[in-house]
Amino acid sequence: MDWGNVTAEDLIEALREVDWSSPPRPPSEFFSRFTVPRSYSKWNSRLKCNLYYYRTNYFIMITVILGLGFLRRPLAIVAALLTALSIAFLNDSFAGTFSEKITRTVRQFSPHLAAKMRPPLTPVIRGRPSAKRTIHICGRPRWVFVLVFSTVSFILWFVSCGLLTLLWAFAIGLLATVLHASFRTPNLKARLNTFREEFRAVWRNYSEL
């Protein structure tokens, strides 16, 4: 795959749809080999490849940096967790998995309530959905949870006076992510993983026909 031809919009869309439940890469691989890219095109391709391949590691790293910045602000830690959840809900795979686990847990105590938490069925015409599938969480549109979690987290940020700390910690996390993705040499596993994801995408599109 030529990552140089992948736009930022394509990368963001892929990160939104890809499965984030995969475990992070081991530290021995994450901190394995670093080299300086020879050209801008090489750097651009490497940056996108590593951001996609080590996405779980970068998410954990930024979360840890944010957590370290709020050790003395418990309320800000709750705000950071709610912010992380509201961002994670934007990923289709995470939202679907989260909804399924919550519904499965509720079903053990109240099957009637769990039945109400199921997403509505999408009408099918001639073997194809009549409209683009809307992601639901616990029977409600995803945007409801994103809006509620974002609003509550913003209020907690304001009350805890941790906005400045958040900006500094988030900037440090992003800087560490960009530096690692820029100098970490893509290995064979990253390339094979890219081809596997491409095959899954093609197979998913084929199965929907």
Task: Give your account of this protein's structure.
By secondary structure, this protein is mostly helical. It contains 10 helices and 4 strands. The chain has helices spanning 8-17, 27-30, 40-53, 55-69, 74-88, 92-107, 111-116, 142-160, 163-183, 188-207, and strands spanning 124-125, 128-129, 136-137, 140-141. It has a two-stranded antiparallel ribbon. A two-stranded antiparallel sheet has the order 3-4. A hairpin with a 2-residue loop joins strand 3 (136-137) and strand 4 (140-141). Helix 3 (40-53) crosses helix 9 and helix 4 (55-69) runs antiparallel to helix 9 (163-183). It is globular and about 60 Å long.
Enumerate the strands of the largest sheet in spatial order, edge to edge or round the barrel: 1-2
- Please state the overall shape, judged from the principal axes of the Cα atoms: globular
Bin the helical content. Answer: 55-70%
- The secondary-structure element order is HHHHHHHEEEEHHH
**Low-pLDDT segments:** none
**Termini Cα gap:** 25 Å
Strand percentage lies at under 5%
Oligomer: single chain
How confident is the prediction overall: mean pLDDT?
77
Classification by helices and strands: mainly alpha
**Major sheet characteristics:** 2 strands, antiparallel
Work out the radius of gyration.
20 Å
List the total number of helices. 10
Would you count the extended β strands for me?
4
